[in-house]
Amino acid sequence: MAGSRVPSGPDTPVAPWKRHIVLQLRQRDRTQKALFLELMPAYHRLLEKAELLAQFSEKLQPEPNDVTPITHQGPWEESGPASDQVPSPATLRVKWQEEEQGLQLVCGEMAYQVVERRAALGTLESELEARQSRSRKSRTRAAYDTLRAHAGLQDAALRRLEEEARDLLERLVQRKARAAAERNLRNERREKAKQARVSQELKKAAKRTVSISENPDTLGDGVSEGAEPLAALASEPKSPDSEACEKWKRPFRSASATSLTLSRCVDVVKGLLDFKKRRGHSVGGAPEQRYLSIPVCVAARLPTGPQDVLDAHLSEVNAVHFGPNSSLLATGGADRLVRLWNVVGGRLEASQTLEGAGGSITSVDVDPSGSQVLAATYSQAAQLWTVGEAQSKETLSGHTDKVTAAKFKLTRHQAVTGSRDRTVKEWDLGRAYCSRTIKVLSYCNDVVCGDHVIISGHNDQKIRFWDSRGPHCTQVIPVQGRVTSLSLSQDQLHLLSCSRDDTLKVIDLRVSNIRQVFRADGFKCGSDWTKAVFSPDRSYALAGSADGALYIWDVDTGKLESSLRGPHCAAINAVAWCYSGSHVVSVDQARKVVLWH
């Protein structure tokens, strides 16, 4: 049909299947042609030679008109020279046919030899490829053996260096221990000498006698040292009993003078026993002031919104803690810095930057006097600073893995650290010496300290209690989820724990039982170091979530009191509630520090 005929022409596109068939035919032609490239020229040469021989034989054959009859000669006739030199055509034809057959046989043999040579060449090529592959494998194996031997040498060198590092660390610890023992011996000698002097002063003060007279000046003359308070008492209005006693003029030992002298001596003894000890060349300083009393919070104020927002560090902020006066704030971050802030007029003012930490800061704490800052770091040590000095005062080294928690005990001269090396260590800060090492079966994520107890939260979903006066664990409380933080109430009767199961738990330490479990829609524990705290009056529990919101629960009712969303756009790592109950601070993974009012 004319309508169904496909037009054809030079510009008509060829169907893909036709192009594929043509390509396949050309490929087969090239493949088959390659096998006969050498054979065909030889065959053609043989045919040409045979054709030349045939033409030559035809030329030698005589024509019918030129054929001369053969005459038989008699024996008496002599043959001429022509009959001896020219052979007959039949003989020549037979001869050339034999030569042609011989050439055909030679051609067949040569063709057979070509096929055999090609088969032998293919075998040699396969053997060559096999040898090359074996050679490559042998070279690869040799290179692998060389690298393995080099790795073994490097591993041996690394082990030697690790052994040398362990030896150096052991020698350093031994030297520290010897230096600490020598300092302790010197300090004990000084203390004994001072105690002997104090006891002599006490004996002299006990032997002194005073007389009571009506004249205050006479009374003042009767007491030579430490009698100023008696003069003040004598100047006060006299009671009837004292007037009745004025009749007696005999000398006697005054109980008031003795008691005043004893109280003064006791203060002196306390000052001597509380003198400052410095590491290395320690000197006995003046008696330190007593700790500032931590303000008692009657009712904590719930935060309602952000008051100040700062980019406090160069990278994420991991820890925050208020000082005892509620105006000093310490923050620590992954930039290896601890920054101190003053809370003034609802704003955070930068006060100081503490340097010297060898790794990311994971925890910060301020001592009860507000004069020292302790930080846990990822450099297997804890750092101690004095407020007002930028460089680190002490390095508490001895852990073999990241230090995750560092807290002061109730005195400024003792501290506790927890680490991922499955140990909890107690430290004498005056000597920078580890006084006790507690081995645990799991990673320690946080610690808190009471009067005579150390509480540690661990990765194996357990909270352990340690008596600071004994070597063993006194109690274990299991919880659901890895423990990320612990917070002890000021009355030391309740413990708040935060764990990775997105819950907070209040433990009543009087009965060692979980009293409340706090949950909320949207609350999610963002990391293994997320911190939750009690309010100062223990009425509320505060924690930050992975979505940047603050969650506050009522401890008594267990209900969610409020949920605050503000400038945080990343997971909140830690929160702090000042001791006066007026301010809350939160820090997150996006470098922000937020002050809430």
Report on the structure:
This is Protein Atg16l2. The chain has 597 residues and is an alpha+beta fold. The protein has three domains: 100-190; 208-234 and 252-275, no CATH class; 306-596, Methylamine Dehydrogenase, Chain H, CATH 2.130.10.10. Helices cover 34% and strands 27% of the residues. A four-stranded antiparallel β-sheet has the order 1-28-27-26, with no helix packed on it. A four-stranded antiparallel β-sheet has the order 2-3-4-5, with no helix packed on it. A four-stranded antiparallel β-sheet has the order 6-7-8-9, with no helix packed on it. Helix 2 packs antiparallel against helix 4 (89-207), helix 4 packs antiparallel against helix 8 (255-273) and helix 5 (216-222) runs antiparallel to helix 6. The radius of gyration is 53 Å and the shape is elongated.
Structural class: alpha+beta
Counting structural domains, the number is 3
User: Any guess at the CATH architecture of the largest domain?
Assistant: 7 Propeller
Report how far the terminal alpha carbons are from each other.
94 Å
Alpha plus pi helix count:
8
* Helix content estimate: 25-40%
Low-confidence stretches: 1-6, 66-83, 212-266, 268-293
Silhouette: elongated
Give the total of beta strands: 28
Averaging pLDDT over every residue, what do you get?
80
Cα gyration radius (Å) = 53 Å
* CATH topological fold name of the largest domain: Methylamine Dehydrogenase, Chain H
Which CATH top level class of the largest domain fits?
A: Mainly Beta
- Major sheet summary line: 4 strands, antiparallel
Largest sheet, order of strands side by side? Answer: 1-28-27-26
Strand-residue proportion: 25-35%
By CATH, the superfamily of the largest domain comes out as: YVTN repeat-like/Quinoprotein amine dehydrogenase
Organism: Echinops telfairi
Protein name: Protein Atg16l2
